[in-house]
Amino acid sequence: MFALHGTGLGGGIAIGRARRLAMQIRDVPRYHIDADGVEREIERLRDAVSIVHEEVVTLRDSLPDSAPEEAYALIDIHLMILADPMLVPAAEQTIRNELRNSEWSLISEMEHLVAQFDDIGDAYLRERGRDVRQVTDRILALLVGTGRVSTADPGEPIVFVADDIAPSDMLRLKHGAGFAIDMGGTTSHTAILARSMGVPSVVGMQCGTELIRDDDWVVVDGDAGIMICAPDESVLAEYRNRQASRELERAKLRRLVDVPARTLDGTDIDLLANIELPDEASLARENGAQGIGLFRTEFLFMNRTELPGEDEQFEAYRAAVDAMEGQPVTIRTLDVGADKALPVSHQSGVANPALGLRAIRFCLTHPELFLTQLRAILRASAHGPVRILLPMITHSHEIVASRRLIDRARDQLASRRVPVAERVPVGGMIEVPAAALSAAHFLQRLDFLSIGTNDLIQYTLAIDRADRDVSHLYDGFHPAVLRLIAGTIEAARKAGKPVAVCGEMAGDPRATRLLLGMGLTELSMHPVNLLRVKRQVLLSEVGKLHGPVTRLVRLGDPERIGTALARLESTGGRS
Length: 575
Ligand code: PEP
Ligand code: MG
What we know:
Blueprint: E1 2-5, E2 7-8, E3 13-21, H1 38-61, H2 69-83, H3 88-98, H4 102-118, H5 123-143, E4 158-162, H6 167-172, E5 178-181, H7 189-196, E6 201-203, H8 208-211, E7 217-221, E8 226-229, H9 233-254, E9 270-275, H10 281-286, E10 292-296, H11 310-323, E11 329-332, H12 359-365, H13 367-380, E12 386-390, H14 396-415, E13 426-430, H15 433-437, H16 439-442, E14 448-451, H17 453-461, H18 479-495, E15 499-501, H19 509-517, E16 522-525, H20 530-538, H21 542-554, H22 558-571
Parallel strand pairs: 3-4, 4-5, 5-6, 9-10, 9-16, 10-11, 11-12, 12-13, 13-14, 14-15
Antiparallel strand pairs: 1-8, 2-6, 3-7, 7-8
Bound molecules: phosphoenolpyruvate and magnesium ion.
Phosphoenolpyruvate binds next to strand 10 and helix 17.
């Protein structure tokens, strides 16, 4: 038994079998085998294929009754691919005839098969090439690494262990019981996704992939940021106890779902949810969200070769609007670039992608792509209250240019006689220090602000939010960051316009009283954090917080800030 330390993402405790993910699964070992090793090699391939087959069948059996027909169809396609004579049997022939190892043989046959799909004119059939890749990747994942197949029972919980996982891959791994990632800080997009999926995770572990083997039993403690490998019986029992008490705590929190988020002295606080995909809106509702404060639309653009068109985007936005049944949905326009690169964002060779053509900068240089998204958002506004949120605004001319394009998108829809809500508020994200310092000026052209603390901290402190080497310096309570947040809230108060915080800080109950004391009344966070933050709101008295928080923000010494924060937490501002 040994433990590895990193940073927990707060999703609780997972106990499961480790499954290591190769960084680039198709970068597999390729070697020749001896003639007398052929049968063993084929056996290895067949074992992996039969596990994948069983996994797919288990997945099909575990689909809820409400699952859409497409989900069943997709699973059937994967089963057909597993049985396709042109894939696995062809790979077996290659092992026999050319004495190549399983991974190499399978990759070659996969490439032949995909090339045939790529030649098909029909877009639907072409898409099936991706399914062939996915199925092959899954078989390869079992084959690579130790070279043996997993002995885990397919029904057992899986903890994914990886050097890093791209945000797009994360979405495919939703079934994981836990994640243990060597790289990364707590506000990398990978971490955000792990948290939003409510999956216990530890990031920044440094060497987990080197020390953990496939199928090892592991415990991921997402609260303490520890991963324990091969736990003995007493440690397992302790963690099972903790899992049970967490469940109890959750059950208690669930009682707060319908309780209004009002402080002890009667201030109503709006608690909204951040989502990445429209179907997460139901999780937001289950946790009592009063709307969507941040819909990160870029995830609709990931995991695909062609960008989603206007109709497809409209359907996604409308699905979120419908699910929220009259509550506001804040749709952020595409925030690609940096750690959310798309093939179309061409950032691979750029030295500083976080400082490059990211977010609104990218959209303004691709007006057709931007207009397509704006039309889709505006169309959704005819179905319920929608707000448009512009990411990473730094210059006021970016607001002017964006507003012009919003007007143009409106005109285009009007000429097609497509209905659009009369009023669609346009807000800006405050994510760079320049924006925080220009908030009052920006508010002359914006209807609301939303403070993205993840990036604001990154850009204020010059700390790459995804770089583990500097993650210990990433500090949301740095005096400079606090001043920028407080100044932005004050600017919005003076302008009489709404302001929210939608970065990770909004979902951290340790920051709730600080933000309320700054005068904030709107917070948007991952749905899983909503009830814990609500509990903190219910126990706070805003009137008692203003004074101490104003003094705290003036402090320059981080140690004194720490003490003042602890006092806010324990006494709620009462001296
Ligand atoms: C932020 O920067 O705080 C934010 C909410 O945006 P994202 O995390 O998607 O960059
Ligand atoms: Mg951001």
